[in-house]
Amino acid sequence: MLQIAESVLNSIGSTPLVRLNQFTKHVEGNIFAKLEYFSPGLSKKDRIALEMIESAEEKGLLEKGQPIIELTSGSMGTGLAIVCNLKKYPFIAVMSKGNSIERAQVMQAFGAKVVLVDQHPDSQKGKVTGKDLELVEEKTKELTRKYNAFKIDQFNNPGSVTTGETRLGPEIITQLGDTKIDAFVDFMGTEGSFIGVSNALKKAFPPIQCFGVEPVNAAFYNSIESTAGTHIIQGGGYHVPLKFIDENKEIISDFIKVSDKEAIESTRLLASEECIFAGYSGGANAAAALKLLKSELKGKIILIIIPDSGTKYLSTDLWDILEYDE
Ligand SMILES: Cc1ncc(COP(=O)(O)O)c(C=O)c1O
How far is the CA of 43 from the centre of ligand 1 (A)? Predict the structure, then answer.
């Protein structure tokens, strides 16, 4: 129902769930994509930011006007920038310079103070590693003390999981109506929302299989010989142990590896064939789901999340203009 929202905060959530038609034309089965980039901060993290701030307020953990701080690859930071702005908390976002600059620009536009941290000498721009994340964490700790700030701590904050259980998961189940799904596939950053959504889906569809997605070059859970290499899928694949995964292994059927090439090709196909303008992680999820439809899940229905928008990658070579002979 269309109505006047009290503020942009009320427009967080209620994103479309769309069947991919062209992307799956050569395989048996279906992929349903939850387009989280329809949110005001253009990512799945808006809901999580709202949940974490509201929960901290309810528990009396936040003082009026207290600065809030978080390390971010840009998505969580943008969600927090929106929620903090509208709820009148100063917000400090600490991000690696390895992430695309659009992320910092958007956070700043929403009123955040953005602190950019140099990458580790071994790292490359556009490819953020666990070593880069450590440097961002160090800077975040320093600034938390300096400003007596409230640290969101998305890698440990239970809100990462509860948002999936109480907000995103139930919304998907309502949208599915009588349609049953067989599997859920999600790229791993903190993986809180993967676990939360999986918990909700498992209750609604007990036989469901849930798969975590990792970059081939930085597969931590998927590989016996684990390699801490670089990759272009911003927002995760840091090759670090994940608390939410380690505590919930029983819900995970398996982990799937996706290469940069597969993620890029799928991201471009989502745009050219489905008019879904996703970022790399959405492409990685679609690529992983397609692999499953070509193998063990032939003929099944798979749910994926499109975590963010392709507009956040305009400065990368993802959308380079192709040269045509006239
Ligand atoms: C674009 C993008 N995709 C995927 C993820 C991973 O999400 P999560 O931390 O919920 O695993 C993130 C996290 O920030 C992200 O920014």
Answer: 8
